[in-house]
Design goal:
The protein has 479 residues and is of the alpha/beta class. It has two domains: 11-91 and 210-478, Alpha-Beta Barrel (TIM Barrel); 100-199, CBS-domain (Roll), CATH 3.10.580. Helix content is 37%, strand content 19%. It is globular. It starts with 13 loop residues before the first strand and ends in a 6-residue tail after the last helix. The structure holds xanthosine-5'-monophosphate (XMP). The site of xanthosine-5'-monophosphate has 25 residues, from β18.
Length: 479
């Protein structure tokens, strides 16, 4: 038994000491962060893979703000894949499968496709999908003979400007501008169509500079998997849907079975980014890294709906967990994500200063327009449901999903490690992020840090006495 018992600190036990600062405005700080392999976010917030927090609507909204949403796994594989696809299709500057037509179709048919699909032009292709021309609405607008062949009205291939499928956003923009083009077909060396870039999509994409995007300008999205049953099939299907990050997520991640699962996923899907957790110690970080994880999630029991610490007696105060895990992750060259326990923007700044590359948040986003589920009215105020994924209700839902019949006796044998509750309505994700990120930027300015790297270097924590905690957190009620 460990006789020499060390201290453990939570976010509320400390403050960041204000330092000499050269930051003139909080808008001059950089909130970009690297979470794993080639995954860069423009701000350090990830929404939790919980069934009352993240499905496609949340993932789209948070990625538009520069963060990342992790679709939860408590649904059938097909549905989780469809949620990922909804995010990937919501914004892009490369259209993977552009609408097309054959040269032998007629103008009436072309007009019908254009009006049904709402596009202003069609690629004309042969049976092998080789590019033969483009037919735009301008080409057909004044054609009176609907039986005229597409071939006669299209702009032929030899007059078209095309690009390589791997073209960058900047180069595509240049080409569209220089040639005053609306559409830039992407073809490979054999002239087979591999995509289409339109000036409309590209300008819309540039306007949303803050969004977290992949190489094709699509929003980033993550999706969760477990370690039992069909998890490999789930991981493969999600990877096929081009999910950007897989999150292998179980309550106690420092186990042999999690390490074996990481190895199996990485063996099957070598190139897929895999974040695994949750752990709370440097040994946990090292072991999951050795098993093949590209990033590690840290947090045992700090979450708002968690009762793990009360029920099991196990857990680790979150600030200490983040600091200790960071000491290991820094040496290994990987990032850690601090999961759970964020009650305010100040906690995010503390977490990043302590070593996290990003924070994962559940409860603060569960009350937004974009979280799954309905609003509930109580005493004239609006609320939304929020439940721990180890709560009784979530446990029963999981069993139903697996077609496991539960009789009342069995339900009473479940030992929940989470609660089902409600959280107040908070508006939309954009509004919540603005407040949280605004607070983080101010916090960075207090620490004299223009980036998260500087924050980690400059930050000095001070521990609070009970009176200091009172002075810090017990304030007048807001009216
Ligand atoms: P917050 O504090 O942001 O925390 O609401 C979200 C995180 O809480 C974890 N989580 C749980 N932990 N029992 C637990 O011990 C549960 O039932 C439970 N559900 C969620 C999870 O890490 C999440 O990201």
């Amino acid at each position: 038994m460990n006789q020499d018992i060390p201290f453990g600190l939570s976010y509320s036990d400390v403050l960041l000491v204000p330092r000499r600062s050269r930051i003139e405005s909080r808008n001059s700080v950089n909130t970009a962060t690297h979470i794993a392999k080639d995954i860069e976010l423009n701000m350090p917030i990830i929404t939790a893979n919980m069934d009352t927090v993240t499905e496609s609507a949340m993932a789209i909204a948070i990625a538009r703000e520069g963060g990342l949403g992790i679709i939860h796994r408590f649904m059938e594989i097909e549905r989780e894949v469809a949620e990922v696809q909804k995010v990937k299709r919501s914004e892009a500057y490369v259209i993977d499968k552009p609408y097309s037509i054959s040269k032998d179709s007629n103008i009436d048919e072309a007009k019908e496709i254009m009006s049904k699909s709402g596009v202003s032009g069609l690629l004309v292709v042969d049976r092998l999908n080789r590019l033969l021309g483009i037919l735009s609405d301008r080409d057909v607008r004044f054609v009176t003979d609907g039986k005229m062949l597409v071939e006669e009205a299209m702009t032929p291939r030899k007059k078209l400007v095309v690009a390589d499928p791997k073209i960058t956003l900047g180069a595509a923009l240049k080409s569209l501008d220089k040639n005053r083009l609306e559409k830039l077909p992407l073809v490979d060396k054999r002239n087979i169509v591999r995509g289409l870039i339109t000036s409309k999509d590209i300008y819309r994409n540039i306007k949303s500079e803050r969004s977290a995007k992949d190489r094709k300008g699509r929003l980033l999205v993550g999706a969760a998997i477990g370690i039992k049953g069909d998890y490999i099939e789930r991981a493969k299907s999600l990877a096929k849907a081009e999910v950007d990050v897989l999150v292998l997520d179980v309550a106690h991640g420092h186990t042999e079975s999690v390490m074996n699962a990481i190895k199996k996923v990485k063996k099957e899907l070598t190139d897929t980014v895999l974040i695994a957790g949750n752990v709370a110690t440097p040994e946990g970080v090292e072991d999951l890294f050795s098993a093949g994880a590209d990033g590690i999630k840290v947090g045992i029991g700090p979450g708002a709906a968690c009762t793990t610490r009360r029920v099991t007696g196990a857990g680790m105060p979150q600030l200490t967990a983040v600091m200790e895990c960071y000491s290991a992750s820094k040496k290994l060259g990987i990032s850690i994500i601090a999961d759970g326990g964020i009650k305010d923007s100040g906690d995010i700044t503390k977490s990043l200063a302590a070593g996290a590359a990003a924070v994962m948040i559940g409860s603060l986003f569960a009350g937004t327009d974009e979280s799954p589920g309905f609003f509930i009215r109580r005493d004239g105020a609006k609320f939304k449901a929020y439940r721990g994924m180890a709560s009784l209700g979530a446990n029963i839902s999981k069993k139903k999903l697996d077609n496991i019949h539960i009789d009342p006796d069995e339900a009473s044998q479940i030992v929940p490690e989470g609660v089902e509750s409600v959280v107040p309505y908070r508006g939309n994700v954009k509004e919540v992020v603005e407040q949280l990120l605004g607070g983080v930027k101010s916090g960075m300015s207090y620490c004299g840090a223009a980036s998260f790297d500087e924050l980690k270097k400059n930050a000095r924590f001070i521990r609070l006495t009970q009176n200091a905690a009172k002075e810090s957190y017990e304030k007048l009620r807001e009216y």
